[in-house]
Structure prediction request, 246 residues.
Amino acid sequence: MSDRPVLIAGNWKMNGSLAAADAFAFQLGEHLAKTRAAAELLVCPPATLLQRLGERLRPLKVGLGAQDCHAKPSGAFTGDIAAPMLAELGCRYVIVGHSERRQFHKEDDATVRAKAEAALAAGLTPIVCVGETEAQRESGQAESVVGGQLDGSLPASGTVVVAYEPVWAIGTGKNATQADIAQMHGFLRRKLGAPGAATRLLYGGSVKPSNAAEILATGDVDGVLVGGASLAAEDFWAIAAASPAR
Ligand code: PEP
Prediction:
């Protein structure tokens, strides 16, 4: 087995209901009853659905992840959720530093790193997101911005997944070209040094069934982080089915 099995991760963002979670798990289960997934599958629903979706996904051997965690294990932080709480619910992963958290919640690299460290301390694997804006890409700063985010957001040690998500490609229907993805993922792999050989690098940004095979076949891509298209079980399955066997 590869050191870097392909990971297909869904990020539901602030979407979904109990009924939608049940329907999603039922439909995904129908596919998995007929065909074994070639990749590791993971769904990150909003916190309100973690318990319910986790119960439905467990028998399917589909992983459960959260979309954020606090840097502290407990305390007076109204509205926040600590990493050990997520672990207790059965989460194995947590997304940290998604561009929507960086943008709308003003999270900086130090905050993202603290959250990633809290995740590791709770036994979770952080999915650390990095990505440049359109203006940064157009001014030739994509690698320096993403490299800086990587330097500032990664914990000193521990197993992490890194998701490269160009901000301009998230939820816009515009995905990066295969050449741009290969270049950035190669840059990230080199920058990670020796641990990079075992670190999975996901691409995220308008991944859908029609472009998944091409993206997943790109050099240094070990999976995808899927937003909108992960809400429909049929699309999520079609993306999973496009995974190369490793
Ligand atoms: C995301 O939210 O991480 C994402 C990549 O969204 P979308 O697939 O909708 O662009």
